[in-house]
Amino acid sequence: MDIETAYKEIIDQNKYMSGYIIDDQGYIVYMNNTYLQILNLEKDAVLGKHILEISPNTKTLSVLKTGEAINGYNWRVKGRNMIASSIPIYKDGKVIGAFAYSLFLDILDAKEMIESLMWELNKYKDEVRILHRAKYSFSDLIGSSEEFLKVINLARQLASHPDTTVLITGESGTGKELLANAIHNRSARSGYPFIRVNCAAIPENLLESELFGYDEGAYTGAQKGGRAGKFELAQGGTIFLDEIGEMSYLMQSKLLVFLQEHEIERVGGSQPMELDVRVIAATNRNLEKMVSEGLFRQDLFFRLNVIHLEMIPLSSHKEDIPQLIEHFLIKFNRRLGTDIKGVTDKALKSLQHYRWPGNVRELQNGMERAVIIANMEGSSLLSGRHFNFVNTSDDPESFYRSKDLKTITEDVERQLIKRALKDANNDIQTASKFLGIDRATLYRKIKKYGFSAS
Ligand SMILES: Nc1ncnc2c1ncn2[C@@H]1O[C@H](COP(=O)(O)OP(=O)(O)OP(=O)(O)O)[C@@H](O)[C@H]1O
Ligand SMILES: [Mg+2]
Q: Does residue 367 contact residue 328 with C-beta atoms inside 8 Å?
């Protein structure tokens, strides 16, 4: 880009700056819109005209002669006070033109300038909104079983109560965060930020300033102008306090104050600030139990517990497993560029029989892994061996129903003894050494399992 284009860009980007460019004879080759507006002239009426016709007292012409810039002089155009600069444009050591620009000094014009800065600021606010928008909605919550829908439908009804505090509980991986996103997205707050704070991940001594921000001078080295906390960032929207059960007792009291007063106070600040922010909290801990143990404030619990949504474990809505599998299959095929068609009947049975302690998250992770492995193998169907957590060597129904730990242990013991006897050519002495038990014990077990040995 040549210097002339660069100058043009500068004055074109700043509404509150007027400017023009002349050639080495003083003829106008460019003028920005702000200056045209001040002069109340059309572009065509000025281009090619001599600068003296437009601006009889201009200092820019002398720049052409001296080759030296004049910076920061006072200037009046159509009754407006400006501060101006005129700068020569050089090419190959010769002055080929000049560039002049001015900034408004009037209060009225300063106001305009501020307005344009405010516009920038609002743009930044929009960016906060976009950055912190809720990613999921109700359509991302898969499941149609009665038990699952009972919770989801209650949550849907919250759409008409955008200020109600919500507490979401449930085991890990049941979709608490997903639900919090969905509630926000389906409320009048959806155009405003959704800000998640993981209370477990932030050290206790930082949580307060993280949530409420701090004022300049709150700490040595505190940022100039202070810093907004997550509550302020969430203004108009929702703050999602995840893992609320991990919040310290002291912070619990500060949160309680917000829920009661709808006001926050920055750390080191003297002025409370009123905010319109909805609180959704989530935890996989039993808050009632924590209250009875004195670990969680009862008054805060009541304030949070206005609407309580309990996400049920996957094991209590196994009917939804096929639908979830279908959903994750589509998702991972798309993401990984694979084309896995489905799950074998046998594997599906195993998956439906499994306990799923990690809930939907575990199913999701299991599906991702299975899709990758099956794809590497070139299979188009997922079968038992692609899922490492479910034993499919036996029929799963009978495997889990009939076998308790004792039976499984005995199975393993029987196998080991059988193998040791074989490797020792049925010699009891050697076999008992292999197994690390004495001969009498081995005899007893042989009798128990009905093996023959010499
Ligand atoms: N019903 C569902 N349909 C589709 N995906 C789900 C569902 N429930 C959970 N998931 C997915 O499972 C994963 C875990 O969900 P989420 O993070 O919401 O769980 P959580 O309850 O917050 O767990 P934790 O207590 O461990 O934080 C996410 O990737 C989420 O998208
Ligand atoms: Mg979570």
A: yes
Average pLDDT, the chain: 86
Of ligand 1's listed atoms, the one at least distance from the Cα of 171 is 25
Cα-to-centroid distance, 122 and ligand 1 (Å): 33
- Residue that is written with structure tokens 């509150």 in the block: 16
Dist. CA 123–CA 129, nearest whole Å? 10
Question: What pTM was computed for the model?
Answer: 0.63
* Ligand 1 atom nearest residue 311's Cα: 21
Distance 272 CA to ligand 1 centre (A): 36
Classify 99 in phi/psi space as left (phi over 0), alpha (psi -120 to 50) or beta.
Answer: beta
Calpha distance 429→49 (Å, rounded): 115
Ligand 1 atom nearest to 136, measured from its CA: 31
Residue 38: pLDDT over 50 = yes
CA dihedral 313, 318, 323, 327 (to 10 degrees): 40
Look at ligand 1, atom 31, and give the residue with the nearest C-alpha: 178
- Going by alpha carbons, the residue nearest to atom 12 of ligand 1 is 361
Nearest-CA residue for ligand 1 atom 8 is 175
The upper half-sphere exposure of residue 110, i.e. CA atoms within 13 Å in the direction of its Cβ, equals 6
pLDDT category of residue 84 using cuts at 50, 70 and 90: confident
Ligand 1 binding residues, C-beta < 6 A: 140-143, 170, 172-178, 284, 360-361, 364
What residues have their beta carbon closer than 5 A to ion ligand 2? 177
Residue 306's region, left for phi above 0, alpha for psi from -120 to 50, else beta, is alpha
Contact 61, 51 (CB under 8 A): yes
Domain annotation for the chain: domains and CATH numbers? 3-109 (3.30.450.20), 138-310 (3.40.50.300), 315-399 (1.10.8.60), 403-449 (1.10.10)
Is residue 55 within 8 Å of residue 18, measured between CB atoms?
no
Quote the pLDDT of residue 389: 63
**Contact of 353 with 400, CB cutoff 8 Å:** yes
413 and 372 Cβ atoms separated by less than 8 Å: no
- Alpha-helical runs (H) found in 79-138: 107-131
Which of 136, 151, 328, 364 maximizes ligand 1 atoms within 8 Å of its Cβ, making it the mutation to test the pocket? Answer: 364
Half-sphere exposure of residue 23: CA atoms within 13 angstroms, side-chain side:
8
Per residue in 367-416, pLDDT (tens digit) is: 998 998 898 888 999 998 888 765 444 445 545 554 567 776 787 788 78
